[in-house]
Amino acid sequence: MTKEIFLLICQLGSGLFWIITYILVIKQGFQDKKYGMPMAAICANISWEFIFSFMYPQNDLQKIINLLWFLLDIFIMMQFLRYGFKEYKKMIPRKIFYCSFFITLVISFFTILAMMHEFEDMIGMYAAFLQNLMMSGLFIGLFIQRGNLSGQSMGIAVCKMIGTVFAAIGFYMSFRTPLITIISLATLIYDWIYIVLIYRFYVRYAK
Question: What is the CA radius of gyration of the chain?
């Protein structure tokens, strides 16, 4: 197998398993009437996908993958805006909730653009891996905050981890940057912790 074919497999694997992850998040969200992805992760994801779908499109295959991610993230964002306020209405007014989301979205958008130029990274790999790490930590936080699996599932956790493995291997083969390697390993550790937490919840309560 040539390196080019191996990298293509990694690209397709990452794209496919993240698409499945997003679909499972949407499905679980509608089923439980809960948002399945924390606000900061939604804002970072949808900003990155907009930038690299429409402003700085990549190769044809990745452009298609990015666009599919973006379309699915719109549904995830809509779920957050629809169901999210119910969890915070005792703490903040509705206007503050929506303003916080909008401010986070704007900050995420311009932060990713700034990182592109700061690191001279026109494919957005540093921002992508950093926000993936952030998402892994936020999923754990969401699970601990709720104390149950509403909006989440083992399928989401496993598919996210597999997608991350494909991306990490592909970028390691292409660039081998120490920062990306460390971020990838940290993300996989958090993903594994998330899977273990969900498994222990199933063992304890889903009998």
Answer: 17
Report how many domains make up the chain. 1
* Phi/psi at 14 (5° precision): -60, -50
Beta strands in 47-174 (DSSP E): none
Spatial separation of the C-alpha atoms in residues 15 and 24, rounded to whole Å: 14
Quote the pLDDT of residue 89: 85
| Token pair for 20 | 């499945």
Q: Which amino acid is at 36?
A: G
H or E element that contains 92: none
Q: What angle is formed at CA 6 by the lines to CA 67 and CA 124, rounded to 5 degrees? A: 40
Digit-coded pLDDT (tens) for 59-83: 789 999 999 999 999 999 999 999 9
Minimum mean pLDDT among 2-6, 26-30, 52-56, 74-78: which range? 2-6
Nearest to 69 by CA among 110, 29, 15, 111: 15
CB neighbour class for 94 (10 Å; exposed up to 12, middle 13-18, buried from 19): exposed
22: domain range? 3-205
Q: What is the pTM of this model?
A: 0.94
